[in-house]
Design brief:
globular, 23 helices, mainly alpha
Length: 424
């Protein structure tokens, strides 16, 4: 099974991987006395594999168990979690729905099921469907669900609902840093950088040294144009968590902007080692190769980018402008203008006035569609800065820093679009 790009990082933390998982769900022994021993062994092996983050192996063993007994409730629950972690959002939602049909407590699956729906860019369902209602859920589960809803509302551009969900979550657990971290992207998207910084600082005061808090504080500094401070926070993040992919991406992009190519190359290599399916590492590798005159390596890296992004349904990326922009940039760099257009147009649908307009305008001009650029190539500096903030605030942290907005999408002396600062 090909692993898709995983959903954006959410401040509530990563999924639990432990042999205690099934016990925590209250279903470890549910019906196992009457279960086929071979099916039970498949499930137990899957639990071990899941704990070791061998997601493909866990998924195979869980499916083997279901071939023997399709009504094994804990298998459906764990299968949903493994599929979610592996980026297969549709199949994950199906597994959770089947677990609900078989009688699992809604509280055991509602949060990961919400994440599976968000992964399909169906954020509106979290507010429309009874299965995601907060009523009747334990406080801890309600807290986590509210933070997922806050992120979904932010994607939808509903700042008011997002902040209300965050406030409701804080009322449940005022001592958690996560409730403050959730505010950072919402504020950043709205251009409220002072408030975003205050929220990140509050999270760090509650939990000093928390990698995600350090990282988000760095992104705020980056979009403010305070590059030394941003670099310092990215350094601290990676000291605390050397495989933090978002910090690796952001620091590498900042180092590229500063012309520190050797240092950027080390971060890109680390990113490709820890997250080989992340197209951002491949694109930055293409930039470095192209600047070093290694055109064949640059082309190979761009083909890797498109190979990772193109299989993803474009509707799944509706709220992921960074990945959409990356798809457009990579195809543009390969001179595949027709393939670049759907990605760039999707960015503009969500963010009118985005730097994508410049590349799309150049494509239209190359096709002698002189009238087209006049419709899409008129963003003001302030509008571009707003879009940059929004990109940085997406949970993958993409977007040009302030002061780089007018340079975003500018053609460098070479043929490969730089999209400077896009990794902050």
């Amino acid at each position: 099974m090909k692993k898709r790009i995983s959903p954006r990082r959410h401040p509530i933390g990563s999924p639990i991987r432990s042999l205690a998982l099934a016990i925590g769900l209250g279903i470890a022994s549910c019906g196992f006395a009457a279960t086929d021993p071979k099916a039970a062994r498949f499930y137990e092996d899957a639990l071990v594999r899941y704990e070791k983050e061998d997601l493909p192996g866990a998924i195979i063993q869980l499916k083997n168990a279901l071939q023997i007994d399709k009504n094994m409730l804990p298998v459906h629950v764990l299968l949903g979690k493994a599929l979610l972690d592996n980026g297969d959002f549709v199949a994950a939602e199906v597994a959770f729905q089947e677990a609900l049909r078989l009688g699992v407590n809604r509280a055991d699956v509602v949060v990961p099921m919400a994440k599976a729906v968000v992964g399909q860019a169906k954020q509106g369902q979290l507010f429309d469907q009874p299965r995601f209602a907060e009523a009747g859920l334990p406080a801890g589960i309600r807290y986590q669900l509210l933070l997922v809803k806050a992120g979904a509302a932010g994607d939808l551009g509903d700042r008011k609902t997002a902040l209300e969900a965050i406030e409701d979550a804080r009322a449940i657990d005022p001592s958690s840093a996560d409730g403050w971290l959730a505010e950072v992207p919402v504020r950043s998207r709205a251009g409220e950088l002072r408030e975003a910084q205050a929220a990140a600082d509050k999270a760090l005061s509650i939990q000093p040294g928390m990698p995600e808090a350090l990282y988000l504080r760095g992104t705020v500094a980056h979009v403010q144009g305070d590059l030394p401070t941003a670099l310092g926070y990215y350094d601290k993040t990676l000291q605390a968590s050397p495989t933090h992919s978002e910090a690796l991406v952001s620091r590498a992009g900042l180092l590229l902007d500063l012309g520190r190519h050797a240092d950027a190359d080390r971060d890109i290599a680390a990113l490709e080692n820890t997250s080989p399916s992340d197209p951002r590492g491949a694109y930055m590798g293409a930039l470095l190769a192209e600047r070093a005159g290694r055109s064949a390596d640059a082309k190979a890296a761009l083909n890797k980018v498109t190979g990772l992004i193109d299989p993803i349904p474009i509707e799944y990326m509706r709220y992921r402008p960074q990945i959409l922009m990356l798809g457009g940039l990579a195809h543009y760099g390969l001179n595949q203008r027709e393939k670049a257009k759907p990605y760039l147009e999707a960015v503009l649908r969500g963010q009118p006035g985005s730097p994508a307009a410049k590349l799309l305008g150049q494509i239209h001009l190359s096709e002698k569609k002189v009238e087209a650029p006049s419709r899409c190539w008129r963003p003001t500096w302030a509008t571009r800065r707003c879009q940059a903030v929004m990109l940085v605030a997406s949970a993958h942290g993409a977007g040009p820093a302030r002061g780089h907005g007018d340079d975003a999408g500018r053609r460098p002396a070479s043929d490969l679009p730089a999209f400077r600062g896009a990794w902050a």
